[in-house]
Amino acid sequence: MFREGILRKAPSPTPMTTPRTQPEGASGPAAGVSFAPETAPLPDATETYTADSITSLSGRDAVRLRPAMYIGSNGELGLHHLVYEVVDNSVDEALAGYCTHVEVIIHPDNSISVIDNGRGIPVDIKQDDPKKRSAVEIVLTELHAGAKFGEDNTYKVSGGLHGVGVSCVNFLSEWLRVEVYRNGFVHEQEFERGIPTGPLRQTGRTTKRGTRVSFKPDGEIFTTTTYDFDTLAQRLREKAFLTRGLTIVLTDERGEQERRQEFFYRGGIAEFVAHLNRNKTVLMPEPFYCEVTQGDVTVEVAIQYNDGYDEKVFSFANNINTVDGGTHLSGFRTALTASINAYAVSEGLTKQLKENLTGDDVREGLVAVVSVKIPQPQFEGQTKNKLNSDVKGLVDSVLRERLKTYFGEHPAVARRIIMKAVDAARAREAARRAREISRKSSLSNLTLPGKLADCSERDPAKAELFIVEGDSAGGSAKQGRDRRTQAILPLKGKILNVEKARYDKMLSHGEIGALIMALGTGIGKSDFSIEKLRYHKIILLCDADVDGSHIRTLLLTFFYRQMPELIERGHVFIAQPPLYKVKKGKVEQYLLDDRELNKYLLKRATEDVQVTVVPTGQMLAGRELAKFLDKLLEFETFLPKLERRMQRDARLVELTLQACTSEDGYRPGRKLHMLFEAEAWPRRLVETLSAAGYAAVLTRDEEHALFRVVVTLPGHSTPEPTVAVDWELATHAEFQKCVTIYAEWRHAMTGPYLVNQGTTTMTIPERAGLSEQILALAKRDVTIQRYKGLGEMNPEQLWETTLNAEKRTLLQVRINDAVETDAVFTVLMGDAVEPRRRFIEEHALDVKNLDI
Amino acid sequence: MSLIRCPICGAETTWVGNPTRPFCSEACQLRDLGHWLTEQYTIPGTPADAPPLDDADDES
Predict the structure, then answer these.
(1) Is residue B21 included in any domain, yes or no?
(2) Which pTM value belongs to this model?
(3) For chain B, how many structural domains are there in total?
């Protein structure tokens, strides 16, 4: 910034510093030339005036009169700006390669010291200066004095180009002291409000090199004079990132304990973006980084995406933060958008999109730093907030080339970035469509979807909408409904053949659009309005099979996510179409599910069947028999699961159940836990099992401080399989159910049985065949029809069983149900293949679990 | 259920007093709507070598 021999004034005043706003009454900052303020000089200015200082006085008065024009404001912003101006000079020394360490100290009185180990400001007398002042004094008392205006480029690049900086700091400080360590000597000079209290003096010897500037901001100028540590720290960290290898230390002496922070970043701006992403999930393990020098311009870019939506891009020109961007930023943006689109098209990643990814799409989650270094930067306005130099084309072409190579070398990263942008484009498209749908649905009933068979009732509280799966069922429902109050919207899951490997289900966008329009509410945060809901009962009517449950899951998830208010207010219901029709003689009956069918059959069976349990002589008939058979059926659903837990050894299970429910074992009303508390019962189990040929031993369950029985099964495999009968086993529902039912009906759990109906009697040797046999008897003169789908019902049947408000049963969907459905949906949708595979396997045979 | 997880980004958010529930933000809500309207949500169905489902027959 300051060097002997070349220190001179700017050849032409302020080539690029036209102020954006010029206060009324001011003739503008004719910086560097004499300037007589139209208003009276500030009171203090007259005290130390001499004729010698008249030139600098005019610059000084201009700055003191309108500080905002030079440093942005006379508030907090400007106060901190003083520090940046001084630090920028040290950073310029670092950029030129002469400075490695800058120390910034906030003193207890809020004065500041900036100390660097650069070359030190030149101290000799400037020979062509009429007043024969030292170079130090000139740079501290004249605007636009400095080496940056020299034609021989002492500083090839520099941020403090304008040279207004350090003299402004001087003018706006109550006092300023400069110490220069140079050529083995210390030189000092002091100023008060910009006016030297004496000439530069050589005061002593030193081995140090560099400059120390200390100053106290003038309380007459600034509305606040208290520095904020964090504000300074943030800016200094930025400076350190931008100047690889430079250490900046910030110390705060004001508190009881000294606070100190050191900034040193070997990684430069790549480390900067990583720092900005420190609490984020990033899409690229390492930031993209490039540095290219062409001619005397250097372009440096670092990019790292995170999974958020915000854009955080910092642009710098000669290490000055250009907060309003400029040519370098627009070059960066053009290149980024073009590069991502080019790669996306070449890899076929944007096929589902109608148009290219926009700049907004590719900038979601973007964190980047663009930094250019140029010899003569052109800024727009005084505050250097926007770069005007013609570097757009250069940044664009350089970045395009480097990104192309980068994407080629990191296809997985490129894919992630592109998929994120595609996602953003979809959201944009969704917003557009949502607006369209909302607009259409608000127009009038004329735009109701064609598939909707509306009802005549206009009062939403009395109107119902049935969303019916499948066109054929939709047809039946349209014919069978009550036209006054019931509207029908047939909806069909779209089937997608995924790579010829799977038939996937989804709702087409047409179906979703029709649904939103039929409801009339509109969609999206700003457009959805519950008051416009056209039906207060929305009833899902789906088949009772896997497909039906998938459609239901999709619809409920859609409601939960996009129209949660419908569920909160209890507008959503699930219809319960029957699964069976049974007919005996002329009497027809519809039954909801397997459980109802069994109940029906058992009731019928017990009308004329009696069962005698041979070993106990117990006779069961009528209601008692129905109760027993009901429990037996329940028992039989749990027994196989318990057997699975016990190495599929049915005999072992039976013996264990018998033992569990014996004299000193479990009794209804007691707790299962007691079985394992004392030694007596487990010992009895060991005896029972040993007598039956098992190798059983009694051991301690140390974890629970209980007893356990370990049974070794005689087998061919080694090691021989073992089963532990202990508290762990007893915590499973299948064990609990089996034991409690067994205990309740112990007297009837062991065959053979005699089954008597009218005049015929047959013998059933084992319990296993009993319920089946009795159900067979019950089915003898009953026809059972199982509906495979709603389509198998005719309109009258559908009305009778499902639509008619007098007879139907509806399940109201509550938020908790919907949350569970959403969880199921999330697993089904998820990227995690393993949980999804497991989920589908577990539930493939058990459709009920997919239901809410 | 005071705290829920945003179905899109997984961030923790609240149900009560959240205008974009169950999402954490309008951005996520919109993103989800985008998935619905561009048919990104499919439920994996039966393997293709198994007989196609009933309404697949209807379509042919």
Answers:
(1) yes
(2) 0.58
(3) 1
